[in-house]
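Following up on my earlier message about adenosine-5'-triphosphate. Here are the inputs again, as you asked, copied directly from the submission form:
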Amino acid sequence: MNILEVRGLRKAYGALKVTDDLDLTVREGTLHAIIGPNGAGKSTLIAQLSGQAGSDAGSVRFAGAEMMGQPMHRRVRAGMSRSFQITSILPGFTALENVAVAVQARAGHSFSFFAPVAGEAALNEAAMEALARVGIQDRAHVRAASLSHGEKRQLELAIALATRPRLLLLDEPLAGTSGQEAERLIGVMRALKGSLTLVLIEHDMDAVFALADRISVLVYGRIIATGSPAEIRGDPQVRAAYLGEETAGEEP
Amino acid sequence: MLKVEALQAAYGESRVLFDINLHVDRGEVVTLMGRNGMGKTTTVRTIFGLLRARGGWVQVDGTDLTNAAPHRIARAGLGLVPEGRQVFPTLDVRENLVAMARPGAWTMPRVLELFPRLGERLGHKGNQLSGGEQQMLAIGRALMTNPRLLVLDEATEGLAPLIRDEIWACLGALKAQGESILIIDKNVDALGRLADRHVVIEKGRTVWTGDSRALRDSPEITERFLHV
Amino acid sequence: QDDDTLTIGLLLTLSGPSAVLGEMARDGFQLAAEEIGDIGGMTTRIIVVDDELKPDVATNKARELVQRNGADIVVGPIFSNIMGAIAKPVVDSGAILISPNAGPSVFAGAECHRNIFATSYQNDQMHEVMGAYAQAQGFDNVFLLAPNYQAGKDALAGFRHSYEGGVAGEIFTQLGQLDYSAELAQIAAMQPDAVFAFMPGGMGVNLVRQYRQAGLETIPFLSAFTVDESTLPAQQDAAVSFLGGSNWAPDLDTPENKAFVEAYEAKFNQVPAVYAMQAYDAARLIDAAVREAGGVADRDALIAALEQAPFTSVRGDFSFGPNHFPIQDFYLTEVVKREDGKFATSIVEKIFEDYQDSYVGDCQMD
Amino acid sequence: MTSLFLLQLLNGVQFGILLFLIAAGLTLVFGIMDFVNLAHGVIYMVGAYLAVSFTQMTGSYGLGLLLTLPATLLIGLVLELLVFRRLYDRPHLDQVLATFGLVMIVTEGVQIIWGAAPLSVAMPEALSGSIPLIGQMRYPVFRLVVIGAGLATALGLYLIIGHTRIGMRLRAGATSRAMVSALGVDIHKLFTVIFAFGAMLAGFAGAMVAPILTVDPGMGEQVLILAFVVIVIGGIGSVRGAFAGALLVGIVDTMGRSFGPILLRLVMEPAAAGQAGRVLAPMLVYILMAAILAARPTGLFGQKT
Amino acid sequence: MSRLMTRRNAALLLFSGFALLPFVATMLGDSYLVVIATRILGFAIAALALDLILGYGGMVSFGHAAYVGIGAYSVAILSRAGITDLGAHLLAGIAGAVLFALVTGAISLRTRGIYFIMITLAFAQMAFFFFVSLSAYGGDDGVTLRARSTLLGRPLLEDDRTLYYVTLAILVALYLLAVAITRSRFGRVLTGARENPVRMQAIGFSPFRYQLTAFVISGAMASVAGVMLANQTGFVSPAFMNWHVSGELVVMVVLGGIGNLLGAVAGATIALLLEEWLGLLTEHWRLLFGLILVVIVLASRDGVSGLFRRRDRP
Ligand SMILES: Nc1ncnc2c1ncn2[C@@H]1O[C@H](COP(=O)(O)OP(=O)(O)OP(=O)(O)O)[C@@H](O)[C@H]1O
Ligand SMILES: Nc1ncnc2c1ncn2[C@@H]1O[C@H](COP(=O)(O)OP(=O)(O)OP(=O)(O)O)[C@@H](O)[C@H]1O
Ligand SMILES: [Mg+2]
Ligand SMILES: [Mg+2]
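Thanks, got it. Here's what our run produced:
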């Protein structure tokens, strides 16, 4: 079953067509990677899908329901979550609170004015779990602003996970994480596959080829190729536009 | 060119750097490696005077510049590509490039030749660029100051493989011209080919230094400190 | 409270753009106090307080004066909106309130009080003077200009009270307006017989100078509280020959006035305005009444003494009506440049003789 | 009627340019450097007072004006070194608190030095006339001079901010001070110089208006809010915006005052129209600002983020 | 945890100080102390209201005087209509404030930062000028209240001390309420929306609803301050709505330390006490006051409360 169906999506900044009549289908339970050169419109696509940015035309159907025109928070509640390429966290909150508030969003009842939230075990436990999953549980009580860049990237993913989405849109989750952390995050994504659907944007080709069930290549707002990792790797057009000979040649 | 010894630094009460030692000679490419949160960026910030050194010292060309004003350090010949891009959001691409430029071999046409994508976006504001475009701009901006020592903190984050390859090539060319480079990056393979020496830090201390061959020959180092 | 000290609180606006009025009143009062020595023959304590032209601050300052400092008499305020705020706390404590300037209609009429006196005038009267003058001149096309606040509305109403001719236009400008080009353009286009303006303080300075700069001086400029000794140092030549209505001018010919103006100018190196004069009179009124009543302990006696106005005002003829507001003469004044180079208003003619305000009928004093 | 309309339009433009002149220094310090400077108004006031004193001392308005410029520059320099430079990296509200304190100090200081009574500068003889405009209406020459000064300031600022490296560095420094210095520019010095320059612009405005407006201890506060309104309507960070905002405020205010009641009379009883006009007139500028911000939350020329 | 305890202790100390003040006044024979302290409590309520949205929601309202004014006018208007009960006055003030906050808040919340400051100022100015032209209630001259509000049908508040204690009780209650709100789930969302609204949307919140709710609560609280201040002053005029008052409230909050509800109370207390005390020292007290403000800002990053905290910055 297709959990996400995008038809005829468009967006332009002035004369610049960033998303140009784009079609995309993502099957439930798979990891669908989107790759493409810098400035191709990948992040913009995610912004459009998540509702952060408006679209000029087109349709976005998520689990059978039309999402076009819905604000971002409604789409999240419907089960679509995202992470940001340029880290977007609550800097004054601790890492734990960052995640706990995401758990709270899913739990509802946020118009409760009296009970202190800091002591709510259910929220904190779920949050801790998400932190542990990305490997920064020992940084739980550090102010997010004081985390190192890589740790922030890990937190970014933990927040997205904590909303318990059906479809997770990840914008370069591995950027800024070094060896061991990257390995761990790749492991997390692999484990998630199946229980939920992932759309992954990444410039780390090792990770993409290791994880993706399908890959779409986005260039200048258009998808020029979609296929299995092997098909994409062999596509000369993709090599020329994005991969370059060397990277494409390397076998994992 | 650059010499850092026994450097210590802290954010408020929490100490981050305890004992950092490294040096970059003229025409040398040195990498700074370590896992997330080990203090690489903090080292760079302290070298540039953006964070106060609580101990140790920083020398550029034999002059002590420990805790000097950042602009003095930059004027001594250091150019920074900071972590997280930090392009000027309200300036357009052209202004980002020329605002801080100093005369030298790197000029606007040359930067645009390296990053043709930027040429197509000259009128865009910094915050209207894609992540990768911002990264290119940050590198271009640092090159335009024509530094003798270029410091790159995760400068290839978010760049497409093709572009990344070009940057490695460009750094190679710089090195060939006798310029020095201090680089933090997670692409250890590519660095291994480019770099002369590697400095590994762990919890704010320099724990290993050696050349590429030594690194390749001692997998336990990469295993223990970098986990790759 | 000690029975043989007389505590007087001066509650005036001493900060902000209108501070000059309060300062003049303070100086006038203190000048009289120095001349007199022990006011009413009692040890005198004078406490000067700034109301900041904020009603809520003023109320508290008034309470502080009567509750903490035990003031027997409070002299103030300058501005009518402050009067409403301080009257109740002052009279509730049994103290006497003497206004050296503000004269809002409610206190002359419906809410008059036996503990409240004014040595000044009822606000409308100054405007009525100009209305009567315009009427007498046979003007039939007068342009009216005032800031859009209560006193401005009262001003134009006061003018119309004694002026029955036509009105070319009526504009309420913004409080604190800087630029009057638009209004002046309208006036220039209409060419009225005269302009009547109520523009106190800095607004008056702006208006008068811009009026002159726009070349409108051929149209007679009638005003109240717009050209007086507090604004003339800034208006200078621009205001010369502009007309105003007043209960006094520095050149009013009485011996007491001569002495007052001379002493004031010598001491403060500026020409006094009505505010100084009215406060000066207030001090002398207090002095005479306290002597008459033989102290301040017996408030009934003190009030009775005050009602007699047992002093010689620098204005000459002066008495209180049943509402404790003055019955006095009003004049048309004109701005002149004196021989010493200073600017002052000067009396042109007497418009009203022994004039009483029109609210006195509403006053039911028990 | 049409000639009056045109004249009022001119008056509106004139008032707008006057506002821009007053807001110019603030555009630089608040709009570009992103420093909330409530003290701008009082520096403008000090400029006017200095112009009064210098004019009296030298007997010439021109000399008075010329002396005011370096004097306010110096004041700006001193303030920057003593206070402002410690506040650039602080939250806006800290800047509000500190500059609020400065406002109190300077206002009181001015009263101590010059007294509370309004002062003024005599119009220089050569500029005191008026020239014929339409029909028998005339226009004061000095107003034209003020318009000229305002336009020149606008153009100068526009060029400096938008088209010089100084301007670029300044805009860059507003968002990323650390980065600017790490790339080799002495941001401290730059900010000091520009801040002092901004103070000088405020002083210039004060000296320019002294012959037409009253010089009193309230003059700074009065225009401060208006200056902020102008910049916010235009969009923070844009000289063009501030200029457009100033013109808009000037025109709407002037036209609203002169023709608002006439318009209201078309839809209401005359008495009610008069009443409504009186209620609405002082609100006009604020209604304008609220409406513009409701429609464009970052002002006319502001950055959308 | 220890931070919380000290916060609680500080609150206890401050409020019991206030509770004891009338006895001190009696001992000193200075009944005026109670008068001025009531005024301080009134402003403390308003500052507390502002800090709730400013400190926790990042909404710098430069128009909170409008709500104080709405509360004050509800006393004036109802009293004239013959309704003198304090409860009725409070309810009317709150109702008016809620309405005004809903409408203006919904529009203002489209903007952020300085723009928000200016648009809230704009709305407050509109309210100000509306009351200035309200001739029925004296325009800008205002109206004198014949008597204070009644409590249980009796003129209990005429006694300065009773008024003082009622105001204090209201302040303490509102303080506790505000503390509870900031620690609740709602409070966390509110703070999150201040930190990063886009992130909050991306985890499924619509910041607008939370911010508007907080804005309305704060407006209602400020109107309570207005009701009490009107009673304290015995006089109601548009001056309560003057932008100066909004500015002073912001100054109080920042002076006390932003996002620290007790700081707001302390800020109001310190600002008004300084004003009183310096006023006694010299006619030019403003000069000193300004100097003190500048020095405090330069010395501490967190208002007065920062002065007492151990420095943890380089
Ligand atoms: N602004 C800050 N305030 C307090 N602590 C900080 C701050 N920035 C970083 N730290 C802490 O300092 C330590 C070192 O951080 P640094 O950014 O130097 O790491 P890094 O090696 O560059 O990591 P990464 O690879 O993730 O960028 C981390 O533990 C981090 O939490
Ligand atoms: N707000 C904006 N206004 C104008 N142009 C914009 C804006 N945001 C993005 N763009 C442009 O749209 C294009 C697509 O940007 P996007 O961020 O989607 O690229 P991307 O594929 O994610 O690239 P990267 O791999 O570098 O992150 C870029 O060229 C960028 O300059
Ligand atoms: Mg992207
Ligand atoms: Mg780093």
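One observation from looking it over: Residues A 148-149; B 40-41, 83, 153 surround magnesium ion (ligand 4) (CB under 6 Å). Hope that helps, and feel free to reply on this thread.
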